[in-house]
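Entry details:
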Amino acid sequence: MVEDSIDRAPHSNRDTITAPALQQFRIPMGLRDGWREMNPTQKEYTFLDFQAQSRLDRIYATNGVIKNATNWEIQETLIPTDHKMISVQVIDRKSPYIGKGRWTIPPYILEDRNLQLEIQIMGQELERKLLTGQRTEQSNPQTLFQTFKEQIRIAAKERTKNKIPKITQQIESLEAKIKQVQQDPNYAEDQDAQSLSREIHERIKFLTKEKAKSNSDKIAARYRIEGEMNSKYWSQINKEKRPRDIIFALKNPEDMNREMNRSDKMAKIARDFYENLQLDGLNINGEEREATMTNLLNNIQAKPTVQQTESLRAGIQRTEVDEIITKVENGKATGLDGIPYELWKMLNQQYKNAKKSKKNAFDVVGTLTKVYNDIEKHGVDPKTNFSEGWICPIYKKKDNTEITNYRPITLLNSDYKILTKCIATRLLTIAPTIIHPNQAGFVPGRSIADQVRLLKLIINNAEVTEENGVIIALDQEKAYDRFRHDYLWRVLGAFRIPEELVQTIRNLYENAKSVVIINGVKSEPFDITRGVRQGDAMSCPLSIMAIKPLVEALRVSNLKGIEIPGVIEKIITTLFADDTTVYLSEEDKLEDLTRILDQWCLAAGSKFNREKTEIIPIGTSEFRTNLIQSRKIGQQQDRIPDSIHIAKDGEAIRSLGAWIGNGIDQHAPWTATLDKIAKALARRDDAIPHNRPRYAGRHRKIPDEDDIGLHLGRKTTSD
């Protein structure tokens, strides 16, 4: 038996008896399908016969084992058998060195009144310098604000050291005293010293119990206030408690058979990989690229309205900064400066309260606005490290010893992110005006659900109307990391984005540097010369604008696409950010599509992964069968390359986050999702004392597994 329909070809309805029974056994044991974890969308089978193929052979393991496992493979065996062999390599890895990482201001220390007063004094002194000082290269709003941040870090570190609860200080003092008493050479014969030691020991025991009781009372009080409610606290205590993510080893790109397990060496491997990725594909014909880029950008006709243009041209306003600081979420990871959003939110609230009372207070919003206006006018001062970030590699799937299988998320300083959120908000406000409706990613008012519904509608409509064609799911390789910066600036110009705003964005990226931190060990910095940073708010609008020339090239091309009666415009492509789906009729040629894709990749610096491209034939059953057998969209056309997978009837492929295909089981492979939900619900039940919720909890409808299962079965397109 198999747990998911993806593990059987052709797909069949989900087993409602044995599969649930297996899950009831393995979920409490914490067992997971290791191969599927590493290959969430891949289709391979271990048992093949004339009628069906299935992945019957699986290795289940706990999370701890899977984390130390690599090289999950399905192979033929030398021994004659009707099953393939599944194998995995489990490595006994020694824990690598864990460095200090970067220091972050703990949220609790911001409640310290002495620290708050100290920051207020420093902030008001900063305001005085900004008002009275002349701008120089050494002293300007940016450098003064950088000094202010460094002073805050020093003060916060000092207060953190001294901010020890009184009872803890008493215990530490008594422990030091008892050690001193017991170190006396005559202690063994001194009855008075021994009696004093016992008294101190009893006092320590009493204080320790009091400390534990105090902590318990605080926890109980907070649970009483925030427990069993839609709060961050309730979510946090119900989350699975995991050890920190540790990277145990990375393969050396120069010798893939050799693994590095020293944290500093792994940080260097990652740093060099991300730096070298920026150099890939630069050795090309400059004149050809310039001509191609010009032709692509000439297709862009959309532009912001006059009112929108004036709004984009204006400098950063105080109201924008205030809105971002007010709305931004707490608890976000900090950049290298270690300053959280909570500091700026606290200072802003103190200023507003003081203003109501007609008192003086540090105006953090006004100060940040002056700093941002200075950046707009003079560019980023390189001495401030304003655009610095640290890359946190987040494991995605497949071999966890290869750095290419990690997603590089960049953590940026909170003051930088406030500015880029202001810019991103402006760009996203005009997105509905300049971005075609076939792009749903990040555009306000649009949803990926609309794109998925269209996908399914086209598949069903093509069979009913006998309109033959194909759906092609494209895969961009390292999409966010590949956009060339000169192309991005040209795209912004083609959209008629005001030069003032374009120059600000350029300044932020042209002075950007990043380091990689692995296991708390920091690499040397490197310059960001290409791509948009995942973790930067600007990456969302910039990426969808960068893809727009490709969309326009497809729309104005001779490709027929899919035509639906009543719809004026041909349906040629749908996108969610960089996730691209293309629709071709049986009259269209794949080589024409390839030519357009290659032209855009040449201009943008991007790359499509041909090996991950998948095709779904649509239309009549006869057409679909012939296409699979001949690997040709039309009989007079070129053969589809063998590296491109063609989905058979009953086989689901992943596109725009949904499982789609001809004649597929709509209860697509949701096992991994249901596993997570089941574990979360189990933790929720454990968190409620005696499984009897309080009054507040009882009067809320909390879904159970049946509710979730029905929901997923009904909504298999966008989750």
In short: The radius of gyration is 30 Å. Confidence is low (pLDDT under 50) at residues 708-719. Residues 191-226 form the longest helix (36 residues).
